[in-house]
Amino acid sequence: MWQPGGRSALADVLGREWDVLVIGGGITGAGILLEAARRGLSVLLVEQRDFAWGTSSRSSKLVHGGLRYLKEGKFGLTRESVHEREALLRDAAGLVVPQSFAFGDYPGRKPGRTAFLIGLALYDLMAGKRARQRHYVGRDEFLGLAPNIDGEGLRGGMCYADAKTDDARLVMRVLQEAQALGGVAVNYVSVQGLLRDGVTVKGATVRDELSGAHYTVPAKVVISATGAWADRLRPLEHGNPPRDGVAAPGHKPGAADGHRLRPLRGSHLVLPHWRLPLAQAVSLMHPADGRPVFAFPWEGVTLVGTTDVDHRDDMSFEASITRAELDYLLAALRSQFPQLDLGEADIVATYAGVRPVIDSGQADPSKETREHALWLEHGLLTVTGGKLTTFRVIALDALRKAAPLLPQWRASLDLRPVFSAPARLPHVKGLPAGQGERLPGRYGALAADVIACAHDGELAEIPGTASIWAQLRWAARHESVQRLDDLLLRRLRIGIQLRGGGAAILPQVRAICQPELGWSDARWEAEQAAYLALWRKHYSIPQP
């Protein structure tokens, strides 16, 4: 996101002393950057790969209150999540949008109708919806809401509302707002080690991953918001820093203070909307183990998820769906939508993300808490766990924890609007219906500038997606795109919306973006080859 002077001015940016250095460019780090900047702190965020490279571009895309947490007695987490969902629907309209859910009522399915409706009544109460909501519909009406669903034994169904978003775009919007308030975010800068005054962390040594240059970044507070990668920066034990910021072999993460991470992988399928046409999100219980699985319309496609399994692969590499997970999700679809005869050939793309979950020793990964945790070790504040929905609450908790390390700083940490309200877009000839709300949600005050950068024909939507061609030009020009996968997997979502990662439209993408990026023909061709290889390895269908 950082643009003034570009990477040629990186030495000046990284050489300053900062109040706060945030490590990690996912939604948690972005949220901390925003909340710190709006409260007058000088704050720098560095990300070793691209913004939202990890979990924050590979989530289930849901902004939800966590209805299932009620069953587990997590009333505080549910209330907090519902409040944040409502705030995002209000302050990020066009980016966070309502999504209705339908859950079929079949004999023997758990939770049963009565328990589900009690939970929904509590859900409404927590959201401030005191008027009686109609949550149950009969069989015929439910089949109208969810055509193609299995009708055998269906008695009716429960309906309720949550929300959805483009997770990577949400991160970019948060970073944009933070930078407008004076925060700075730089991608492809990795932390090599921690600076210390005695045993107290006072900054970090970092490396520009593009040039190889090293820098020393002094800071009063260092916050690790690296999610599932958090243990790589934590001390081996109190007072003993890890070598090069990475825990030594044999170290049991978090053992010193009782915190321990349990990386859990959630994998997803993407299908063409015409093959699984849904207006509602459909929640179902997997026939094999009773776990909840969902399918819902998202950005011109239908998204199906999710698994919840221990991720034991090397965290240095991108996560990928396994064959077993793909078969598991397909089995759920075939059970719930038998007449559609869905199969492997219908899958457009796959993706997998690793959730940073605090290990409480549950045998079933799905029963681990989604609450966030913070711990302060000799000046290094680690923030992990939590949910996409609650990033603002997590950020404010982090600043409260860090406040004693900033004795001269005085600021209220009360909740403020998530985003400043963008100006309404005037009518624009040729702009497709719905883009007048969608673009301000994604770009805030810069939405009119996105439209203004369009060349002839670039206000049209990219076939098979809900994005317009001009968004490609804007991203290449203004959003710190360093690699082609930054553009196609995170600034826009072409890589998971179109077959082959969008290979068929790469000539048009090249015509728009290569001049903006200033890449030579050789550079573009190398980036394209690398992107397509990455897509085949991590976003396609795994071999049996």
UniProtKB/TrEMBL annotation:
Region (Disordered): 236-259
GO terms, molecular function: glycerol-3-phosphate dehydrogenase (quinone) activity
Cofactor: FAD
Keyword Oxidoreductase attached: yes
Gene Ontology annotations of biological process type: glycerol metabolic process; glycerol-3-phosphate catabolic process
Chain ranges of the FAD dependent oxidoreductase domain: 19-390
Keyword line: FAD, Flavoprotein, Glycerol metabolism, Oxidoreductase
Flavoprotein recorded as keyword: yes
Residues covered by the Alpha-glycerophosphate oxidase C-terminal domain: 424-523
Family assignment from sequence similarity: Belongs to the FAD-dependent glycerol-3-phosphate dehydrogenase family.
Protein name, as recorded: FAD-dependent oxidoreductase
